[in-house]
Amino acid sequence: MRKLTIAHESWPLATTFTISRGSKTSAEVVVVAIEEDGRTGHGECVPYPRYGQTVESVMAEIEALRGEIESGLDRAALQTRMEAGAARNGIDCALWDLEAKRSGRPAWALAGLDGLDAVTTVYTLSLEAPEAMAAAAAKAEAAGRPLLKLKLGTEGGDAERVAAVHEAAPTCRLVVDANEGWKADQLPDLFAACASAGVELIEQPLPAGDDEALRAIEHPIAVCADEAAHDLSTLDALVGKYDAINIKLDKTGGLTEALALADAAQERGLILMIGCMTSTSLSMAPGQIIAQRCKVVDLDGPLLLARDRENGIRYDGGTMHPAPAALWG
After folding, report:
1. Structural element, H or E, at residue 247
2. Domain regions of the chain by residue span
3. What residues form the annotated binding site?
4. Binding site membership for Mg(2+): which residues?
5. Which InterPro entries match (predicted)?
6. Is 251 an annotated catalytic residue?
7. Strands 39-45 and 22-36, how do they pair?
8. Is 248 noted as a catalytic residue in this protein?
9. 119-320 CATH fold
10. CATH of domain 3-105
11. Choice among 101, 149, 241, 248 that is catalytic
């Protein structure tokens, strides 16, 4: 008989982190543990207010499935018993970890890979005044972080932010994330400003659900769906508007759906990106399996924390090493 444990954890951030929708000072996560035959699988998920989730609602979703989980619910059945989202992600990743521990095979092997390689992850700069973001970029460049992601999405000043960061950290590659904060009539000028600074990818410039303008405008830089992309059911609507997709396990509802989404997105010619919510290494570890096939990796959550959990992933500058087996998988 299995035993399910659900816990809320709060992890302070190193500094206040701001995006177009607001600021936060901590990462609020839900940890799922499933114990069976002396082995325990763990999964971490992040309730996200943008999608109507709270810590309480996510914990209640998981609790509602307790009987089935403790009676042996497997990953395949889980996909039909719960909608994509944070709650399913926590359970799905715990089941992957449990299967790895019980079988003695790493999760990457269960996913059909030959191993995990270290990857280069972005380092995210909080939305601030241009001079503050420039200073943060220069510090990140000096710390050996070669790929920076700029949080943007304000009524004005984003072109200046991009230019300031590029000038302060000229050797760094850049991606930007507007978090749905731009308007269609701003796109030509903002796309041009990004192109001038060598930006390689622009995430979610327009609000999900109000992004049809992306079909008509030229894309001098690859445009990536984030808030508009969740699971397989949302994929076909992206084609023709976006060039890339940001796969996040808290949106797909776990690694199982993320793997299927990655396959389907590549079949449609979309560039793959793996992203994360602000959280600990336990959230990042399953994403490393998807990261092996992605052009852009954004798994820097632990770098934004005041401290990470025990047995956390090792980062050397922008290099992210495979998660230790003691953490997950």
Report:
1. strand 244-247
2. 3-105, 119-320
3. 177, 203, 226
4. 177, 203, 226
5. DgoD-like, Dipeptide_epimerase, Enolase-like_C_sf, Enolase-like_N, Enolase_C-like, Mandelate_racemase_C, Mandelate_racemase_N_dom
6. no
7. antiparallel
8. yes
9. TIM Barrel (3.20.20)
10. 3.30.390.10
11. 248
